[in-house]
């Protein structure tokens, strides 16, 4: 079911489709415990077949029921509830302005966690959490993305960027300084986005 979806990569041909797509997206996935999401506009004619929208999903069967009161009706969810060593799924949904993570700009969660071990972080843009304004330059925005990610990880369980298994970085077509991009990413991962582990409290 849509409730079992934990992560969505959403690709748009144009960012102008964003508001309209969000309406349909919200109707399909709902607003309670939604999947985490990465959204990127990649330009006209890039998606196959002239499509305007494309998405792929990561699904954990039974995880929707596990998070809700109908868990007993799903065999996988019911079995997962008997496991005391890990949780099948957990969701972090930031809905108010804070100093540590941007408000979710759309019907998605900041993080969906699989079996208390694998964190699926939503895509980040260079927003300063306390003001919800973009940093001035693309370099500062890239650094802010890493900082936001590090803060979310730390708020969850003290995780850090050096534990990343995989990460996608999208850049605008006008940015060609790949050496600078790689340098910033490497420095931010090594420095954990400037965030000291154990200092972010998601309950604040």
UniProtKB/TrEMBL annotation:
<dbReference type="InterPro" id="IPR035959">
    <property type="entry name" value="RutC-like_sf"/>
</dbReference>
<dbReference type="GO" id="GO:0017178">
    <property type="term" value="F:diphthine-ammonia ligase activity"/>
</dbReference>
<dbReference type="Pfam" id="PF01042">
    <property type="entry name" value="Ribonuc_L-PSP"/>
</dbReference>
<protein>
    <submittedName>
        <fullName>Uncharacterized protein</fullName>
    </submittedName>
</protein>
<dbReference type="InterPro" id="IPR030662">
    <property type="entry name" value="DPH6/MJ0570"/>
</dbReference>
<dbReference type="InterPro" id="IPR006175">
    <property type="entry name" value="YjgF/YER057c/UK114"/>
</dbReference>
<dbReference type="GO" id="GO:0017183">
    <property type="term" value="P:protein histidyl modification to diphthamide"/>
</dbReference>
